[in-house]
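Data availability (excerpt). The following record was deposited with the supplementary files.
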Amino acid sequence: MSILERVYFFHDELIRNTYPNASTLMRAFEVSRITARRDIAYLRDRLLAPLSFNPQKNGFYYSEEDFNLPFENSPRIIFLLGMLNRLAEETGLSNLPEIIQLEKKLSKLVSQESTHLIGTIHCEWIEVEHPDPAIFDAIIEAIVKKRQLNMTYRSLKQKHTDRIVEPVKLVNYQGRWYLWAWCTLRHDHRLFHLARVLNATVGEKAQFSPESLSSDLERSFGIFKGAPRYFAEILFTDTAAELVKNQFWHKNQMVEEVKEGILFRVPVRDDREIMMKIMQYGAQARVLNPQALVEKISKETDKMRQLYDTMPLVTHESLHSVNQ
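Predicted structure:
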């Protein structure tokens, strides 16, 4: 049993006015008198409990009412514990030993009657990726110790390159993990997808200041980071307007209610993600500006229409399995 478990047990006895003493702890946890006295001193001196001793009762009591231990019966703390559990699951980190250990420690700090509330929280992300624990540990160590990271990275075109990077921040975006870092190969900051990091080891001391590389993370919409190239102006109508007006896409977004629906403006660096976001709303989203984005959306919708109008019927049976 940990000291916190014994302290919380002693606290419960005090709340119930049983006048506990060192012998109470000795009997309940089979610890020595020295350990029991040390626990009581910890409660009084470190947790600032208003402990007083009653000679007639041969036990302790609280001289002040309404004293609470840290985390005790706190709905917010219980909620945060639940969020830790659910977010760990949804970000692919639930199997990391450090997360498991932290959850166990925090669970001991809340009353057993309240732990059922943790199960009432449900988080669900899509496209969740589980990072390799060894690679994740190396990245964390490099960030904490301000060291370089030696890694092999695989591009979308399956090209492998050896990189020396200086980590700045870990980014979890839509369930996927990325590393924002200075790349010594490209002499520029880059966003590396952890799922494509094949191996990683901690290297030499970092040379660049992380603070100088952080600002570009928040300047434009989506995962394509950097200075925005333009503001996309989109008109949302019908039910899409009702949904989008309550959504947060970017800190510099502008939302205006117009007669036709919602006029939405957001800074963009790269067309790819904003196009996917717009097209998920179908005919209820219309790009007004810039004209280049209007043309790209128009061409993409034409390709989609042609795919269904002119291509022969494709069935599951006609597809070639990669395992064949």
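Summary of structural features: The mean pLDDT is 84.
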